[in-house]
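step=encode ok
step=design start
structure_in=
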């Protein structure tokens, strides 16, 4: 079953809510997170996922639970794969859908 609305990428939350509320640039936040500016820019621009390690970094710096970031990323990833219709498998015999 396809979802009507695309889930929000965690990078959008990071960019629009977190960085703006702290008045931080990508460069400043990357320094605080001890990652490259490019890496953070790719996440904030929704080009790269929030990994488990990144979720821990975000939790430590911004005090927003790592599970929040990972839940957003999981929902986004699941939606993306389901919307792509790339996977079409049949259930094992005897299993109901």
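sequence_out=
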């Amino acid at each position: 079953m396809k979802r009507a609305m695309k889930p929000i990428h965690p990078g959008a939350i990071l960019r629009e809510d977190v960085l703006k509320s702290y008045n931080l640039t990508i460069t400043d936040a990357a320094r605080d997170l001890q990652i490259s500016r490019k890496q953070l820019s790719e996440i904030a621009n929704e080009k790269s996922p929030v990994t488990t390690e990144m979720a821990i970094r975000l939790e430590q710096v911004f005090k927003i639970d790592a599970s929040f970031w990972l839940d957003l990323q999981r929902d986004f990833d699941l939606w993306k794969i389901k919307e792509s219709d790339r996977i079409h498998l049949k259930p094992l015999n005897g299993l109901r859908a």
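step=design ok
step=annotate ok -> The chain has one domain: 10-82.
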